[in-house]
């Protein structure tokens, strides 16, 4: 819905009676109190893209609310009232201006917290006292440490720490019993390696004139992918043009550095080169050149839904033959082993990042958007992190094996 008036009209006409979901982006400066008419039924409220900086103290009247998105609003503090919301489990405040997260602002049932792209320097200890916490998105903040209680978060599986101020790996990470997906690039602990790779590859960057951009092949959260032909008559390539300076997993620079450091592998999609920025262009597009994948590939599954949280969503009829499953998993394992051999973590080993050809069973692991270069970390930590990533592979194996016929 795009206006308060539309909300009022629909409430008045009864069209919203019993509504469980509302999305309202209407340049709101204050929480629309009209919504309290739905206090007994609303389960999901999306007020992203408004001008809100606070939420009312009686938000607790939304007794059924489980999901709250308030991204892109000028909050400076995570509203304390959230800590009193009885059923709230998913909270999204991406790209606000949050500096402060107080101990009492975290809902008791918290399962999925998104605080990506804020200005947070410190998180409260109570974050470690949320036993259902499963997914924690903290990329692009100013954190230097984690609350010690997070070390024993029993269900925390996915953690995004990229683009913060960690000078060393926070010790809590290695103790997390269920962690399987970790992004930590773009921190002082990895940055030198990333910059070195980008510098070493700068001379080999392709120029915009080397390529003719053709049709759009697809797009994902972080970029648009085009087919491009090389003007010197070489084979066609794919060009990934990044959408923004940062994603929920990290920055394009970290993604490009990781891809270049990994080099080529038959079951891993990594760049051939970066594209030189066009100094004359009005907007400085970041882009990289990838090998063009053959047709017939499709993602092995869809990304996690709200309900699935950290687990992918497979098509209802998805089935694999025993031989096909073995082939697919062996190829993904070899791609992950290649990355580990190069001192890296993929960070996002998921079926939705595997492009797979159902006819041949061949697979390619893609999306290094959450990958980290671990070269600056002590060898023992590197190994422990790579062991941790094997949990993600085990989840993938279990999902595929559960669909074997
Ligand atoms: N190298 C390639 N060759 C051919 N097609 C590609 C290539 N890379 C991506 N595509 C197409 O573009 C689609 C989108 O790619 P992808 O999901 O990797 O986007 P993204 O923005 O990089 O990813 P994410 O959403 O994980 O950030 C793919 O499903 C595929 O159809």
From TrEMBL:
Positions of ATP binding: 240
Any Pfam family matching the protein: Pkinase
Domain Protein kinase residue range list: 211-405
Database matches in PROSITE patterns: LRR, PROTEIN_KINASE_ATP, PROTEIN_KINASE_DOM
InterPro entries for this protein: Kinase-like_dom_sf, Leu-rich_rpt, Leu-rich_rpt_typical-subtyp, LRR_dom_sf, LRR_domain-containing, Prot_kinase_dom, Protein_kinase_ATP_BS
Classification via Gene3D superfamilies: Ribonuclease Inhibitor, Transferase(Phosphotransferase) domain 1
Annotated EC: 2.7.-.-
Listed GO MF terms: kinase activity
Keywords: ATP-binding, Kinase, Leucine-rich repeat, Nucleotide-binding, Repeat, Transferase
Protein's name in the database: Leucine-rich repeat-containing protein kinase family protein
